[in-house]
Design a protein that fits this description.
Layout: E1 6-9, E2 15-19, H1 27-34, E3 37-42, H2 50-57, E4 63-66, H3 74-82, E5 87-90, H4 100-106, E6 110-111, H5 118-133, H6 136-144, E7 165-169, H7 173-186, E8 189-193, H8 199-214, E9 222-224, H9 228-234, E10 237-240, H10 254-258, E11 265-268, H11 277-286, E12 291-294, E13 313-315, H12 324-342, H13 354-357, H14 376-379
The structure holds nicotinamide-adenine-dinucleotide.
Length: 395
Amino acid sequence: MTERDWKVVNPGGSHRVVVTKELPGARWLQLLTAADCRVEVSRSTEILSEAELRAAFGDHCDAAIGQLTERWSAETLGALRAAGAAIYSQYAVGYDNVDVAAATRLGLPVGNTPGVLTETTAQLAVALTFAAARRIAEGDRVMRAGEYHGWLPGMLLGALIYRATLGVVGAGRVGAAYARMMVEGHKMDLVYYDVRLNAELEAYIADYAAFLVAHGEQPVTCRRAATLRELLGACDVVSIHATLTEETRHLIGALELAAMKEEAVIVNASRGPLVDEAALARHCRAHPRFRAGLDVYENEPAMAPGLAELDNVVLVPHLGSATTWTREGMATLAAANVAAILRGWPMWRAAPGLEDVLPFLGDEEPPHAAPSIVNADDLGLPRIAAQAPTKEDQQ
Ligand SMILES: NC(=O)c1ccc[n+]([C@@H]2O[C@H](COP(=O)([O-])OP(=O)(O)OC[C@H]3O[C@@H](n4cnc5c(N)ncnc54)[C@H](O)[C@@H]3O)[C@@H](O)[C@H]2O)c1
Protein backbone atom coordinates (compact mmCIF):
# COMPACT_ATOMS: atom_id res chain seq x y z
CA MET A 1 0.00 0.00 0.00
CA THR A 2 1.18 3.52 -0.74
CA GLU A 3 0.85 6.64 1.42
CA ARG A 4 -2.17 7.66 -0.63
CA ASP A 5 -4.01 4.67 0.80
CA TRP A 6 -3.92 6.20 4.29
CA LYS A 7 -5.85 9.15 5.66
CA VAL A 8 -4.19 11.07 8.50
CA VAL A 9 -6.32 12.81 11.12
CA ASN A 10 -4.80 15.23 13.64
CA PRO A 11 -1.30 14.96 12.10
CA GLY A 12 0.28 16.86 15.01
CA GLY A 13 -0.85 14.34 17.64
CA SER A 14 1.92 12.77 19.68
CA HIS A 15 0.64 9.13 19.82
CA ARG A 16 0.61 7.28 16.49
CA VAL A 17 -2.54 5.15 16.15
CA VAL A 18 -2.96 2.86 13.12
CA VAL A 19 -6.56 2.02 12.16
CA THR A 20 -6.87 -0.71 9.55
CA LYS A 21 -10.30 0.29 8.13
CA GLU A 22 -12.37 3.45 7.91
CA LEU A 23 -14.93 3.40 10.75
CA PRO A 24 -18.42 4.95 10.86
CA GLY A 25 -19.29 8.06 12.88
CA ALA A 26 -17.24 10.96 14.16
CA ARG A 27 -17.16 10.39 17.92
CA TRP A 28 -14.32 7.85 17.79
CA LEU A 29 -12.02 10.34 16.07
CA GLN A 30 -12.95 13.03 18.60
CA LEU A 31 -11.97 10.70 21.46
CA LEU A 32 -8.61 9.89 19.85
CA THR A 33 -7.89 13.52 18.94
CA ALA A 34 -8.70 14.58 22.51
CA ALA A 35 -6.16 11.95 23.68
CA ASP A 36 -3.49 13.66 21.52
CA CYS A 37 -3.40 10.91 18.88
CA ARG A 38 -2.28 11.17 15.28
CA VAL A 39 -4.70 8.76 13.63
CA GLU A 40 -3.69 6.97 10.42
CA VAL A 41 -6.66 5.25 8.79
CA SER A 42 -6.33 2.75 5.95
CA ARG A 43 -8.64 3.58 3.04
CA SER A 44 -8.37 0.05 1.67
CA THR A 45 -11.48 -2.12 1.52
CA GLU A 46 -9.28 -5.22 1.11
CA ILE A 47 -8.43 -7.39 4.11
CA LEU A 48 -4.90 -6.40 5.19
CA SER A 49 -2.43 -9.27 5.33
CA GLU A 50 -0.16 -9.74 8.34
CA ALA A 51 2.73 -8.40 6.27
CA GLU A 52 0.70 -5.27 5.46
CA LEU A 53 -0.22 -4.84 9.12
CA ARG A 54 3.42 -5.07 10.17
CA ALA A 55 4.44 -2.63 7.43
CA ALA A 56 1.80 -0.23 8.71
CA PHE A 57 3.18 -0.26 12.29
CA GLY A 58 6.73 0.34 11.04
CA ASP A 59 9.13 0.90 13.90
CA HIS A 60 6.85 3.23 15.83
CA CYS A 61 3.18 2.73 16.61
CA ASP A 62 1.47 3.48 19.93
CA ALA A 63 -1.80 1.61 19.31
CA ALA A 64 -3.73 -0.22 16.61
CA ILE A 65 -7.45 -0.60 15.96
CA GLY A 66 -8.04 -3.71 13.84
CA GLN A 67 -10.74 -5.87 12.34
CA LEU A 68 -12.13 -9.38 12.89
CA THR A 69 -11.21 -10.20 9.27
CA GLU A 70 -7.48 -9.79 9.98
CA ARG A 71 -5.19 -12.33 11.58
CA TRP A 72 -3.54 -11.01 14.72
CA SER A 73 -1.06 -13.81 15.36
CA ALA A 74 1.67 -13.92 18.02
CA GLU A 75 4.14 -12.68 15.39
CA THR A 76 2.05 -9.69 14.36
CA LEU A 77 1.20 -8.77 17.95
CA GLY A 78 4.93 -9.10 18.74
CA ALA A 79 5.73 -6.67 15.93
CA LEU A 80 3.09 -4.27 17.26
CA ARG A 81 4.57 -4.48 20.75
CA ALA A 82 8.11 -4.04 19.38
CA ALA A 83 6.92 -0.85 17.64
CA GLY A 84 6.05 0.45 21.13
CA ALA A 85 2.29 -0.13 21.14
CA ALA A 86 0.41 -0.06 24.43
CA ILE A 87 -2.78 -1.75 23.13
CA TYR A 88 -4.39 -3.70 20.31
CA SER A 89 -8.05 -2.68 20.11
CA GLN A 90 -10.39 -4.93 18.10
CA TYR A 91 -13.41 -3.42 16.32
CA ALA A 92 -15.69 -6.36 17.30
CA VAL A 93 -17.02 -8.18 20.33
CA GLY A 94 -15.56 -11.56 19.19
CA TYR A 95 -11.79 -11.94 19.06
CA ASP A 96 -11.14 -15.51 17.90
CA ASN A 97 -8.79 -14.02 15.23
CA VAL A 98 -6.49 -12.63 17.94
CA ASP A 99 -3.89 -14.67 19.81
CA VAL A 100 -4.87 -13.22 23.20
CA ALA A 101 -2.58 -15.60 25.09
CA ALA A 102 0.38 -14.26 23.09
CA ALA A 103 -0.73 -10.66 23.67
CA THR A 104 -0.88 -11.35 27.42
CA ARG A 105 2.64 -12.84 27.36
CA LEU A 106 3.77 -9.67 25.57
CA GLY A 107 2.04 -7.53 28.22
CA LEU A 108 -0.24 -6.11 25.52
CA PRO A 109 -3.87 -5.29 26.44
CA VAL A 110 -6.50 -6.45 23.89
CA GLY A 111 -9.71 -4.42 23.67
CA ASN A 112 -13.14 -5.44 22.32
CA THR A 113 -16.57 -3.80 22.04
CA PRO A 114 -19.25 -5.72 24.02
CA GLY A 115 -22.76 -4.42 24.69
CA VAL A 116 -23.58 -2.48 21.55
CA LEU A 117 -23.87 -5.56 19.30
CA THR A 118 -26.20 -7.65 21.41
CA GLU A 119 -29.73 -6.62 20.37
CA THR A 120 -28.64 -5.79 16.81
CA THR A 121 -27.13 -9.22 16.21
CA ALA A 122 -30.00 -11.02 17.94
CA GLN A 123 -32.45 -9.18 15.65
CA LEU A 124 -30.50 -10.29 12.59
CA ALA A 125 -30.74 -13.89 13.83
CA VAL A 126 -34.51 -13.40 14.26
CA ALA A 127 -34.68 -11.98 10.72
CA LEU A 128 -32.77 -14.98 9.34
CA THR A 129 -35.00 -17.40 11.27
CA PHE A 130 -38.14 -16.03 9.65
CA ALA A 131 -36.53 -15.44 6.27
CA ALA A 132 -35.65 -19.15 6.21
CA ALA A 133 -38.90 -20.44 7.75
CA ARG A 134 -41.17 -18.22 5.61
CA ARG A 135 -39.09 -18.42 2.42
CA ILE A 136 -38.63 -14.65 2.12
CA ALA A 137 -35.62 -14.77 -0.20
CA GLU A 138 -37.34 -17.30 -2.48
CA GLY A 139 -40.42 -15.07 -2.65
CA ASP A 140 -38.24 -12.06 -3.46
CA ARG A 141 -36.63 -13.98 -6.31
CA VAL A 142 -40.05 -15.00 -7.67
CA MET A 143 -41.19 -11.36 -7.73
CA ARG A 144 -38.03 -10.06 -9.39
CA ALA A 145 -38.14 -12.79 -12.02
CA GLY A 146 -41.74 -11.85 -12.95
CA GLU A 147 -42.84 -15.36 -11.96
CA TYR A 148 -45.73 -14.35 -9.71
CA HIS A 149 -48.87 -15.08 -11.69
CA GLY A 150 -51.41 -14.81 -8.86
CA TRP A 151 -52.08 -16.11 -5.34
CA LEU A 152 -52.22 -19.88 -5.03
CA PRO A 153 -53.17 -21.97 -1.99
CA GLY A 154 -50.03 -24.08 -2.13
CA MET A 155 -47.44 -21.50 -3.15
CA LEU A 156 -44.15 -21.25 -1.19
CA LEU A 157 -45.52 -22.78 2.00
CA GLY A 158 -43.21 -22.42 4.96
CA ALA A 159 -43.15 -23.34 8.64
CA LEU A 160 -45.20 -21.65 11.36
CA ILE A 161 -42.96 -20.69 14.26
CA TYR A 162 -45.36 -20.30 17.16
CA ARG A 163 -45.57 -22.32 20.35
CA ALA A 164 -42.77 -24.44 18.85
CA THR A 165 -39.49 -25.43 20.51
CA LEU A 166 -36.48 -23.14 20.25
CA GLY A 167 -32.89 -24.29 20.66
CA VAL A 168 -30.16 -21.79 21.51
CA VAL A 169 -26.57 -23.00 21.40
CA GLY A 170 -24.53 -20.54 23.48
CA ALA A 171 -26.84 -18.47 25.69
CA GLY A 172 -24.47 -15.58 26.32
CA ARG A 173 -25.28 -11.94 25.52
CA VAL A 174 -26.52 -12.41 21.93
CA GLY A 175 -27.96 -15.91 22.46
CA ALA A 176 -29.98 -14.81 25.51
CA ALA A 177 -31.28 -11.68 23.72
CA TYR A 178 -32.33 -13.84 20.74
CA ALA A 179 -33.98 -16.35 23.10
CA ARG A 180 -36.02 -13.60 24.78
CA MET A 181 -37.14 -12.14 21.44
CA MET A 182 -38.27 -15.54 20.17
CA VAL A 183 -39.81 -16.79 23.42
CA GLU A 184 -41.70 -13.58 24.16
CA GLY A 185 -42.64 -12.81 20.57
CA HIS A 186 -43.66 -16.29 19.48
CA LYS A 187 -44.35 -18.06 22.77
CA MET A 188 -41.76 -20.75 22.25
CA ASP A 189 -40.43 -23.28 24.72
CA LEU A 190 -36.70 -22.77 25.14
CA VAL A 191 -33.97 -25.40 25.32
CA TYR A 192 -30.47 -23.97 25.61
CA TYR A 193 -27.07 -25.56 25.56
CA ASP A 194 -24.15 -23.73 27.15
CA VAL A 195 -21.15 -24.65 29.24
CA ARG A 196 -22.42 -22.04 31.71
CA LEU A 197 -25.78 -21.87 33.45
CA ASN A 198 -27.69 -18.70 32.52
CA ALA A 199 -29.70 -18.23 35.71
CA GLU A 200 -30.81 -14.72 34.70
CA LEU A 201 -32.35 -15.99 31.45
CA GLU A 202 -34.02 -18.91 33.23
CA ALA A 203 -35.53 -16.56 35.83
CA TYR A 204 -36.68 -14.15 33.11
CA ILE A 205 -38.52 -16.89 31.23
CA ALA A 206 -40.04 -18.26 34.45
CA ASP A 207 -41.45 -14.77 35.11
CA TYR A 208 -42.76 -14.58 31.55
CA ALA A 209 -44.39 -18.00 31.96
CA ALA A 210 -46.12 -16.73 35.13
CA PHE A 211 -47.26 -13.64 33.21
CA LEU A 212 -48.82 -15.83 30.50
CA VAL A 213 -50.63 -17.92 33.11
CA ALA A 214 -51.92 -14.75 34.75
CA HIS A 215 -53.39 -13.84 31.35
CA GLY A 216 -55.08 -17.19 30.98
CA GLU A 217 -52.54 -18.55 28.49
CA GLN A 218 -50.41 -21.67 28.46
CA PRO A 219 -46.98 -21.03 30.02
CA VAL A 220 -43.71 -21.39 28.12
CA THR A 221 -40.90 -23.54 29.49
CA CYS A 222 -37.13 -23.22 29.69
CA ARG A 223 -34.51 -25.88 30.31
CA ARG A 224 -30.80 -26.30 29.89
CA ALA A 225 -29.95 -29.38 27.80
CA ALA A 226 -27.37 -31.78 29.21
CA THR A 227 -26.03 -32.48 25.73
CA LEU A 228 -26.08 -30.76 22.35
CA ARG A 229 -27.67 -33.86 20.78
CA GLU A 230 -30.59 -33.64 23.19
CA LEU A 231 -31.24 -30.05 22.09
CA LEU A 232 -30.89 -30.82 18.39
CA GLY A 233 -33.41 -33.66 18.48
CA ALA A 234 -36.00 -31.63 20.38
CA CYS A 235 -36.05 -28.29 18.54
CA ASP A 236 -37.89 -26.80 15.56
CA VAL A 237 -35.46 -23.86 15.37
CA VAL A 238 -31.79 -23.98 16.38
CA SER A 239 -29.74 -20.80 16.51
CA ILE A 240 -26.00 -20.81 17.18
CA HIS A 241 -24.47 -18.11 19.36
CA ALA A 242 -21.50 -19.80 21.08
CA THR A 243 -18.01 -18.34 20.94
CA LEU A 244 -15.61 -19.85 18.42
CA THR A 245 -12.88 -21.84 20.18
CA GLU A 246 -10.95 -25.02 19.32
CA GLU A 247 -13.68 -26.87 21.24
CA THR A 248 -16.59 -25.38 19.28
CA ARG A 249 -15.04 -25.61 15.78
CA HIS A 250 -17.44 -27.80 13.73
CA LEU A 251 -19.77 -28.13 16.72
CA ILE A 252 -22.44 -28.74 14.09
CA GLY A 253 -21.38 -31.38 11.55
CA ALA A 254 -23.09 -34.10 9.52
CA LEU A 255 -24.02 -36.20 12.57
CA GLU A 256 -25.49 -33.24 14.44
CA LEU A 257 -27.53 -32.18 11.38
CA ALA A 258 -28.79 -35.74 11.03
CA ALA A 259 -29.98 -35.57 14.67
CA MET A 260 -32.20 -32.57 13.87
CA LYS A 261 -35.85 -32.67 12.83
CA GLU A 262 -36.46 -33.13 9.11
CA GLU A 263 -38.15 -29.69 8.80
CA ALA A 264 -36.11 -27.74 11.32
CA VAL A 265 -34.53 -24.31 10.78
CA ILE A 266 -30.87 -23.70 11.67
CA VAL A 267 -29.37 -20.21 11.99
CA ASN A 268 -25.77 -19.16 12.44
CA ALA A 269 -24.94 -15.52 13.24
CA SER A 270 -21.98 -16.36 15.47
CA ARG A 271 -18.83 -17.45 13.60
CA GLY A 272 -18.70 -19.58 10.46
CA PRO A 273 -16.36 -22.37 11.61
CA LEU A 274 -18.86 -23.50 14.29
CA VAL A 275 -20.70 -25.20 11.42
CA ASP A 276 -19.21 -27.68 8.95
CA GLU A 277 -20.45 -25.73 5.93
CA ALA A 278 -19.89 -28.50 3.36
CA ALA A 279 -21.89 -30.91 5.56
CA LEU A 280 -24.65 -28.28 5.88
CA ALA A 281 -24.79 -27.85 2.10
CA ARG A 282 -25.08 -31.65 1.67
CA HIS A 283 -27.78 -31.86 4.35
CA CYS A 284 -29.85 -29.02 2.84
CA ARG A 285 -29.59 -30.57 -0.63
CA ALA A 286 -30.77 -33.94 0.68
CA HIS A 287 -33.55 -32.43 2.86
CA PRO A 288 -35.37 -29.70 0.90
CA ARG A 289 -37.78 -29.00 3.78
CA PHE A 290 -34.91 -28.35 6.19
CA ARG A 291 -33.92 -24.66 6.13
CA ALA A 292 -30.86 -22.63 7.03
CA GLY A 293 -30.13 -18.92 7.55
CA LEU A 294 -26.48 -17.95 7.50
CA ASP A 295 -24.77 -14.68 8.37
CA VAL A 296 -21.26 -16.09 8.76
CA TYR A 297 -19.14 -18.55 6.77
CA GLU A 298 -16.32 -20.92 7.41
CA ASN A 299 -13.81 -19.25 5.08
CA GLU A 300 -15.13 -15.73 4.63
CA PRO A 301 -15.64 -14.20 2.17
CA ALA A 302 -15.84 -17.58 0.36
CA MET A 303 -18.80 -19.95 0.64
CA ALA A 304 -18.92 -23.75 0.46
CA PRO A 305 -19.51 -24.92 -3.11
CA GLY A 306 -23.16 -25.61 -3.84
CA LEU A 307 -24.58 -23.52 -0.97
CA ALA A 308 -25.58 -20.63 -3.24
CA GLU A 309 -27.64 -22.94 -5.47
CA LEU A 310 -29.90 -24.14 -2.66
CA ASP A 311 -33.31 -22.49 -2.32
CA ASN A 312 -33.70 -23.66 1.27
CA VAL A 313 -30.70 -21.58 2.42
CA VAL A 314 -30.84 -17.81 3.09
CA LEU A 315 -27.49 -16.06 2.89
CA VAL A 316 -26.39 -12.61 4.06
CA PRO A 317 -22.83 -11.22 4.16
CA HIS A 318 -21.96 -11.03 7.89
CA LEU A 319 -24.51 -8.30 8.70
CA GLY A 320 -25.06 -9.25 12.36
CA SER A 321 -23.92 -5.91 13.78
CA ALA A 322 -24.73 -3.85 10.69
CA THR A 323 -26.83 -0.98 12.02
CA THR A 324 -25.53 2.58 12.04
CA TRP A 325 -26.01 2.90 15.81
CA THR A 326 -24.11 -0.31 16.56
CA ARG A 327 -21.24 0.24 14.14
CA GLU A 328 -20.75 3.82 15.43
CA GLY A 329 -20.94 2.52 19.00
CA MET A 330 -18.31 -0.11 18.23
CA ALA A 331 -16.02 2.61 16.85
CA THR A 332 -16.56 4.70 19.99
CA LEU A 333 -15.74 1.78 22.30
CA ALA A 334 -12.69 0.73 20.27
CA ALA A 335 -11.35 4.30 20.43
CA ALA A 336 -12.25 4.66 24.13
CA ASN A 337 -10.16 1.54 24.87
CA VAL A 338 -7.16 3.09 23.09
CA ALA A 339 -7.57 6.53 24.67
CA ALA A 340 -7.87 5.08 28.17
CA ILE A 341 -4.81 2.83 27.89
CA LEU A 342 -2.68 5.64 26.41
CA ARG A 343 -3.76 7.90 29.28
CA GLY A 344 -3.09 5.28 31.94
CA TRP A 345 -6.72 5.07 33.09
CA PRO A 346 -8.07 1.99 34.91
CA MET A 347 -10.45 -0.64 33.54
CA TRP A 348 -14.22 -0.04 33.56
CA ARG A 349 -16.55 -2.44 35.38
CA ALA A 350 -16.91 -5.94 33.94
CA ALA A 351 -18.73 -4.50 30.88
CA PRO A 352 -20.90 -7.51 30.04
CA GLY A 353 -23.77 -5.59 28.44
CA LEU A 354 -25.20 -2.38 27.06
CA GLU A 355 -26.14 -0.82 30.39
CA ASP A 356 -22.50 -1.03 31.38
CA VAL A 357 -21.09 0.66 28.29
CA LEU A 358 -23.84 3.28 27.81
CA PRO A 359 -21.87 5.95 29.73
CA PHE A 360 -19.26 5.84 26.92
CA LEU A 361 -21.75 6.38 24.11
CA GLY A 362 -23.32 9.77 24.85
CA ASP A 363 -21.97 13.20 23.96
CA GLU A 364 -20.75 13.90 27.49
CA GLU A 365 -17.20 13.34 28.69
CA PRO A 366 -16.84 9.51 28.84
CA PRO A 367 -15.82 7.76 32.07
CA HIS A 368 -12.07 7.86 32.64
CA ALA A 369 -11.66 4.12 32.12
CA ALA A 370 -11.14 1.54 29.36
CA PRO A 371 -14.59 0.06 28.52
CA SER A 372 -13.46 -3.50 27.79
CA ILE A 373 -9.99 -5.07 27.85
CA VAL A 374 -10.37 -8.85 27.54
CA ASN A 375 -7.06 -9.75 29.20
CA ALA A 376 -7.21 -7.02 31.87
CA ASP A 377 -7.35 -9.45 34.79
CA ASP A 378 -4.52 -11.61 33.41
CA LEU A 379 -2.40 -8.49 33.01
CA GLY A 380 -3.32 -7.31 36.53
CA LEU A 381 -4.69 -4.00 35.23
CA PRO A 382 -6.52 -2.06 37.95
CA ARG A 383 -10.30 -1.76 37.70
CA ILE A 384 -12.36 1.31 38.56
CA ALA A 385 -14.52 0.99 41.72
CA ALA A 386 -17.51 -1.34 41.16
CA GLN A 387 -20.12 1.37 41.69
CA ALA A 388 -20.88 4.01 39.06
CA PRO A 389 -18.09 6.58 38.95
CA THR A 390 -18.57 9.83 40.79
CA LYS A 391 -17.65 13.23 39.38
CA GLU A 392 -14.41 13.02 41.33
CA ASP A 393 -13.52 9.67 39.75
CA GLN A 394 -13.82 11.33 36.39
CA GLN A 395 -11.55 14.27 37.07
N1 LIG B 1 -22.60 -12.09 13.15
C1 LIG B 1 -22.10 -11.04 13.77
O1 LIG B 1 -21.91 -9.99 13.18
C2 LIG B 1 -21.79 -11.13 15.24
C3 LIG B 1 -22.04 -10.03 16.07
C4 LIG B 1 -21.80 -10.15 17.44
C5 LIG B 1 -21.26 -11.32 17.96
N2 LIG B 1 -20.98 -12.35 17.10
C6 LIG B 1 -20.44 -13.60 17.63
O2 LIG B 1 -21.47 -14.18 18.40
C7 LIG B 1 -20.88 -14.94 19.45
C8 LIG B 1 -21.55 -14.62 20.76
O3 LIG B 1 -21.30 -13.28 21.12
P1 LIG B 1 -21.71 -12.80 22.59
O4 LIG B 1 -21.42 -11.36 22.69
O5 LIG B 1 -23.06 -13.31 22.92
O6 LIG B 1 -20.62 -13.64 23.44
P2 LIG B 1 -20.80 -14.21 24.92
O7 LIG B 1 -19.42 -14.48 25.38
O8 LIG B 1 -21.67 -13.32 25.73
O9 LIG B 1 -21.59 -15.59 24.68
C9 LIG B 1 -20.99 -16.74 24.17
C10 LIG B 1 -21.58 -17.93 24.89
O10 LIG B 1 -21.04 -19.12 24.33
C11 LIG B 1 -20.89 -20.03 25.39
N3 LIG B 1 -19.98 -21.13 25.05
C12 LIG B 1 -18.62 -21.12 25.02
N4 LIG B 1 -18.15 -22.33 24.71
C13 LIG B 1 -19.23 -23.14 24.54
C14 LIG B 1 -19.40 -24.51 24.23
N5 LIG B 1 -18.35 -25.32 24.04
N6 LIG B 1 -20.65 -25.00 24.14
C15 LIG B 1 -21.73 -24.20 24.36
N7 LIG B 1 -21.63 -22.90 24.67
C16 LIG B 1 -20.40 -22.37 24.75
C17 LIG B 1 -20.36 -19.18 26.53
O11 LIG B 1 -20.49 -19.83 27.79
C18 LIG B 1 -21.24 -17.96 26.40
O12 LIG B 1 -22.42 -18.04 27.17
C19 LIG B 1 -19.37 -14.65 19.42
O13 LIG B 1 -18.73 -15.69 18.72
C20 LIG B 1 -19.27 -13.40 18.58
O14 LIG B 1 -18.07 -13.34 17.92
C21 LIG B 1 -21.26 -12.28 15.77
